[in-house]
Amino acid sequence: MFHDFIEDELSRQSIFRAEEFLSIDYVPEHLPHREEELRTLLRGFKTLISAPGRTSPRFVIEGPVGTGKTAVAKRFSEELVTAARKRGVRLHGIHINCRVNKSPFLVYLRVLREFRPDFPRRGHSPEELLQIILDTLDEQDRYVLLILDEFDYFIINPRGQEILYALTRLVDDRLNEQQRISLLLIGRDLQSSLGTLDYSTLSTLQHNSLRFQKYSAVALYDILHERVALAFQDGVVLDDTLHLICDIAAEYGDARYAIELLCRAGKQAEQVGSDYVVPEFVRKAKADTHPELRKEVFESLPLHNKLLLLAAARQLRGVQDAYVTMGDVEDMYRTVCEEYNQAPRAHTQIWEWVQDFAAHGILDTKKSGPGQRGQTTLIGLSDLPAEMLEQFLLQLIEE
Ligand SMILES: Nc1ncnc2c1ncn2[C@@H]1O[C@H](COP(=O)(O)OP(=O)(O)OP(=O)(O)O)[C@@H](O)[C@H]1O
Ligand SMILES: [Mg+2]
Question: What are the residues facing 143 on neighbouring strands?
């Protein structure tokens, strides 16, 4: 009976206690296996509190996907700001994702709006905005810890590098004044991109760099264990299930992937009405997702970037080879555009996007060898199955 069914569903206790603790935005109070890194940061920035305005520390955090860079930076910033407040220092931690705020102008605007929320978008150059920020900070006697996250998205373009020059120059220009802005740069592999900067910019940063290592299965277990206690009812996630997740995710050392597997396995269990999250749900979850398919990254892409990726995935799915040519992908892109009633963009634009995807590790590119006619760019995918990428994009485009 339908009535019984409803009563049954309503009386059923969810296996989740609080699912929000599995969300990617949640930053836990305690970050197992990153205590040492947090301490190093606090040591590096403590002059912001003990001698405000005298120095402007700069630090770089680097490391592979899902190794806790963002989580550590956010937790660190919150603790530093709280400690500063207690001592009467007006310090503001501002976390900016460079994947979303793609230019120095947008970064400055975001900083300025922290203090002047209604500041208009139009009418000022980036340089002017920076000056207004400094004037505002001087007037109100405030300090900023500026965290530029996913900075690799930024540094590959010359405008991205400008912001580093501008912010490092501030230190020299204001030698006898209060230093207002300190920097924490975060990225997967900044050293190689920073290598193109001049020595003075580089040397100040290289001295203060922290490299986060991939998490081992043991570390992942400690991380997940705390998350399970927050997110699930007692005892519903079997220990074997946790170990399986950790073994799978340890291949990448990626805590985000581990948490995603846990979350998906939990949802599977809930969906079929199981009282326990058993290992089989993890195997299913693993087949449905891949550590490189980060929804938040793909979601923010403009439609045509998605269409181009979809074209690459389709082209790659149809062939035996690991790589396809740029020309073939472009042809497929035009077909895909037709399908979606979109006017295709020009070659130069597409070319830029491909470079962008390659820089961010979404696509692999290489030059064709001498065997092929002429020299052409070849496009591939690292270890992400083309079909999975295709399905994932189709879903995103439909939404
Ligand atoms: N030591 C830890 N303890 C608890 N949770 C962690 C820890 N490290 C990472 N996490 C969690 O794992 C997820 C991924 O971590 P985070 O976003 O900090 O990775 P990241 O290094 O910034 O990755 P990316 O390079 O993709 O930006 C987040 O949900 C975060 O809360
Ligand atoms: Mg991050």
Answer: 91
The third-level CATH classification (topology) of the domain covering 215-288 is: Helicase, Ruva Protein; domain 3 (1.10.8)
Q: What is the mean pLDDT of residues 235-256?
A: 96
Which residue's alpha carbon is at the smallest distance from atom 26 of ligand 1?
65
- Which atom of ligand 1 is nearest the CA belonging to 27? 31
pLDDT band at 134 (very low <50, low <70, confident <90, very high): very high
Confidence band for 370, pLDDT divided at 50, 70 and 90: low
Structure tokens given for 329 = 């992908």
Strand blocks (E) in 99-237:
143-149, 181-187, 209-211
Order of strands, sheet of 58-62, starting from the edge strand that comes earlier in the sequence: 91-97, 143-149, 181-187, 58-62, 209-211
Atom 9 of ligand 1, residue of closest alpha carbon: 68
Pairing of strands 364-367, 91-97: unpaired
Instruction: Show me where the domains of the chain are located.
Output: 35-211, 215-288, 295-398
Pocket of ligand 1 (CB under 6 A): 24, 27-28, 31-34, 63, 65-71, 150, 188, 223, 255-256, 259
The mean pLDDT of 80-107, rounded to a whole number, is 93
Contact 17, 51 (CB under 8 A): no
Cα angle 215, 218, 219; round to 5: 40
Q: Relative to the CA of 33, which ligand 1 atom is closest? A: 1
DSSP string computed for 255-299:
HHHHHHHHHHHHHHHHHTT-SSB-HHHHHHHHHH--TT--HHHHH
Fold of 295-398: Arc Repressor Mutant, subunit A (1.10.10)
Is residue 383 classed as helix, strand or coil in its secondary structure?
A: coil
Q: Whose CA is nearest to atom 7 of ligand 1?
A: 68
Predicted TM-score of the model (pTM): 0.85
